[in-house]
């Protein structure tokens, strides 16, 4: 459970990226499946070659940005439909990721990573003992608090930056582009560049998350991005359903919460006897399907019951509640 | 302020669906001119608006705004000079964003967008003041999503967003057509006020002949991609719907045909 929350926080950065493309830009961007691995491989290869893991993670972020920009250019300048632009980039990135790594898997187990560095510094400061004492009444003591706390800080920083960006003049234009594109052009904003920039940013976050996942898991693998977009969507949809999305700041909270809840659901599901780790993708797909379908069914049922109630009221000759006219001029 | 030089536009050239939308339009608007445009179905009014705004590019001819040839400028670049309100109340605003965010987007029409806050305290105060001039109570609902507003409110907001940055040219494309008569009247009245207050150079397409006669200082009638009738000054003041229809029949030798035209309000 504890590691689910850790993983949830790391994957939340990816989910925030998906939120940016899927919800803000209204662009279902499948590049994510490829750019996640791009981030992981760039970071892994750099680390194996002796680079500073923090610099390697930053490089992963830039690589993801470049991938997103290319998808954006395919769509805006190449006039390719959004889904197809993403699929083309995803498939192209598969080969590129193999080239970056030179093989299909790069292990990081003996390497200095962001995770090992932070954990070492953390333990040196003796923070684990302090925190364990704080929660000693629960009788719960994890291996280390370092990952959880540092990843929470990273994720909250990304959330804060995203919230701020979406409130700036550029950010407002970005959001309006996803809401009403022709209108944005009529107010003198170049929607093509906004889409390119937005997708770049989205994939930068995804790749950064990929870099962290690789360092957390101890390897980068060419297949680790398969279905990543669905996991991102699952986080966004679960989060919005559970925590609401009235404002941008609320929605980004919800996405982070959704990413953690998704990991918890997955961990619980895998405890079921006959399910295997290979079933993860199926479970993910089912979670998204349920999250999308159940609200519709509930709404239809509610509506049906409302109509029945109405009919009964009319049968009894009562006046219909709420039928008072309430006119408002303009 | 606006100068159109021999604009032509053909759709689907060389196919069975070929349609000549505009046949050599020449039109000049002096600063402060308020020109209303009426016309039958397929007269080319909308095509003309889209060519001026840059959504469509003309086959031949030039568009000049404020002494500058903007024919090659893309829609978003040209928008620095142009404020627009569309027929569809949904078209001019972002429904999932708040009133103040919509205004902030419109505020940046003439300015480069930066990474500074879109809605500052100062701007919010100014937005509130500006909204007050609409007398719709929108100044108390700055944080409300625009999707919650009625069609009339949205169209009034669109009008404000298009005009409060004082564009060189205001394009109104049947902006009251989708509203019921009472709300159409309100938006028409607001249009008149705002255009007069800022002395905006305005081109307004309308389906409402009575409105076309009542507003502006010049009226033009289009048919078959051409301007077939212009009334200005005294002549325009003396116009009635009957006389307009007579003029059309005299010039074209046929009845004025439009399934949406409102002859009087």
Give the SSE map.
The complex is a heterodimer of chains A (330) and B (265).
Chain A: H1 2-24, H2 32-48, H3 53-76, H4 82-101, E1 105-107, H5 114-124, H6 127-134, H7 146-165, H8 169-179, H9 181-186, H10 191-217, E2 219-221, H11 228-243, H12 248-270, H13 280-315
Antiparallel strand pairs in A: 1-2
Helix pairs in contact in A: 1-7, 1-10, 1-11, 1-12, 2-3, 2-4, 2-10, 3-4, 3-10, 7-12, 8-10, 11-12, 11-13, 12-13
Chain B: E1 2-11, E2 19-29, E3 34-39, H1 45-53, E4 60-65, E5 68-69, H2 75-78, E6 82-85, H3 99-107, H4 121-132, H5 151-163, E7 169-173, H6 181-198, E8 202-205, H7 209-214, E9 218-223, E10 226-232, H8 233-237, H9 241-252
Parallel strand pairs in B: 3-8, 3-9, 6-7, 7-8
Antiparallel strand pairs in B: 1-2, 1-4, 4-5, 9-10
Helix pairs in contact in B: 5-6
Subcellular location (chain A): Cell membrane
InterPro entries (chain A): ABC_transp_permease
Membrane topology (chain A): Multi-pass membrane protein
3D architecture notes:
- The complex is a heterodimer of chains A (330) and B (265).
- Chain A is globular, with a radius of gyration of 23 Å.
- Chain A has 13 helices and two strands, in the order ααααβααααααβααα.
- Chain A has 330 residues and is mainly α.
- With 265 residues, chain B is an alpha/beta fold.
- Chain B has a single domain (1-261), classed as P-loop containing nucleotide triphosphate hydrolases (Rossmann fold, 3-Layer(aba) Sandwich), CATH 3.40.50.300.
- Chain B has helices at residues 45-53, 75-78, 99-107, 121-132, 151-163, 181-198, 209-214, 233-237, 241-252, and strands at residues 2-11, 19-29, 34-39, 60-65, 68-69, 82-85, 169-173, 202-205, 218-223, 226-232.
- In chain B, the strands form two sheets. Chain B has a six-stranded mixed sheet, sandwiched between helices.
- In chain B, α5 packs parallel to α6.
- The longest helix of chain B has 18 residues, at 181-198.
- In chain B, 46% of the residues are buried.
- The interface between A and B is medium-sized, with 25 and 41 residues.
- Chain A: It is a multi-pass membrane protein.
- Chain A: It comes from Geobacillus proteiniphilus.
- Chain A: This is ABC transporter permease.
């Amino acid at each position: 459970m504890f590691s689910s929350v850790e993983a949830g926080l790391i994957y939340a950065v990816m989910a925030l990226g998906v939120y940016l493309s899927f919800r803000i830009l209204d662009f279902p961007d499948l590049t994510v499946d490829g750019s996640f691995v791009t981030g992981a491989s760039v970071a892994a290869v750099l680390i194996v070659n002796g680079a500073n893991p923090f610099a390697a993670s930053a490089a992963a972020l830039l690589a993801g940005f470049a991938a997103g920009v290319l998808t954006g250019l395919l769509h805006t300048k190449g006039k390719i439909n959004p889904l197809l632009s993403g699929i083309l980039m995803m498939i192209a990135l598969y080969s590129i990721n193999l080239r970056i790594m030179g093989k299909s898997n790069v292990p990081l187990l003996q390497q200095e990573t962001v995770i090992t560095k932070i954990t070492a510094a953390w333990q040196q400061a003796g923070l684990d003992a302090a925190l364990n004492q704080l929660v000693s009444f629960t009788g719960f003591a994890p291996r280390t608090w370092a990952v959880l706390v540092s990843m929470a800080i990273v994720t909250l920083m990304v959330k804060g930056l995203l919230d701020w960006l979406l409130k700036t003049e550029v950010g407002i234009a970005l959001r309006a582009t996803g809401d009403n594109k022709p209108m944005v052009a009529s107010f003198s904003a170049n929607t093509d560049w906004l889409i390119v920039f937005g997708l770049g940013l989205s994939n930068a976050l995804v790749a950064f998350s990929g870099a962290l996942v690789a360092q957390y898991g101890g390897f980068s693998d060419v297949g680790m991005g398969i279905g990543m977009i669905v996991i991102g969507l699952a986080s966004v949809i679960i989060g919005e359903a559970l925590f609401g999305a009235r404002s941008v700041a609320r929605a980004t909270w919800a996405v982070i919460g959704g990413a953690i809840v998704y990991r918890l659901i997955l961990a619980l599901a895998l405890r079921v006897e006959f399910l295997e780790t290979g079933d993860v993708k199926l479970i993910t797909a089912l979670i998204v399907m349920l999250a999308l379908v159940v609200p519709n069914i509930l709404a239809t049922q509610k509506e049906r019951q409302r109509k029945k109630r109405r009919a009964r009221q009319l049968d009894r000759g009562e006046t219909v509640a709420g039928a008072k006219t309430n006119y408002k001029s303009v | 302020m606006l100068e159109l030089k021999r604009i032509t536009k053909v759709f689907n050239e060389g196919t069975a669906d070929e349609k000549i939308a505009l046949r050599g339009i020449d039109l000049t608007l002096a600063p402060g001119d308020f020109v209303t445009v009426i016309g039958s179905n397929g007269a080319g009014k909308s095509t003309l608006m889209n060519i001026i705004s840059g959504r469509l590019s003309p086959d031949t001819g030039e568009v000049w705004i404020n002494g500058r040839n903007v024919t090659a400028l893309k829609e978003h670049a040209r928008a620095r000079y142009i404020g627009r309100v569309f027929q569809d109340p949904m078209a001019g605003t972002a429904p999932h964003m708040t009133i103040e965010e919509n205004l902030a987007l419109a505020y940046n029409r003439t300015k480069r967008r930066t990474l500074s806050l879109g809605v500052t305290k100062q701007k919010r105060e100014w937005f509130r003041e500006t909204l007050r001039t609409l007398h719709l109570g929108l100044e108390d609902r700055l944080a409300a999503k625009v999707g919650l507003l009625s069609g009339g409110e949205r169209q009034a907001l669109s009008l404000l967003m298009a005009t409060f940055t004082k564009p060189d040219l205001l394009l109104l494309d049947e902006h009251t057509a989708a509203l019921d008569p009472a709300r159409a009247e309100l938006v028409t009245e607001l249009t008149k006020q705002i255009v007069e207050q800022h002395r905006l150079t305005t081109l307004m397409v309308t389906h409402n002949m009575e409105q076309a006669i009542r507003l502006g200082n010049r009226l033009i009638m289009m048919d078959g991609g051409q301007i077939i009738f212009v009334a200005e000054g005294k002549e325009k003041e003396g116009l009635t719907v009957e006389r307009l229809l007579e003029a059309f029949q005299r010039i074209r030798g046929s009845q004025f045909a439009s399934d949406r035209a409102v002859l009087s309000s």
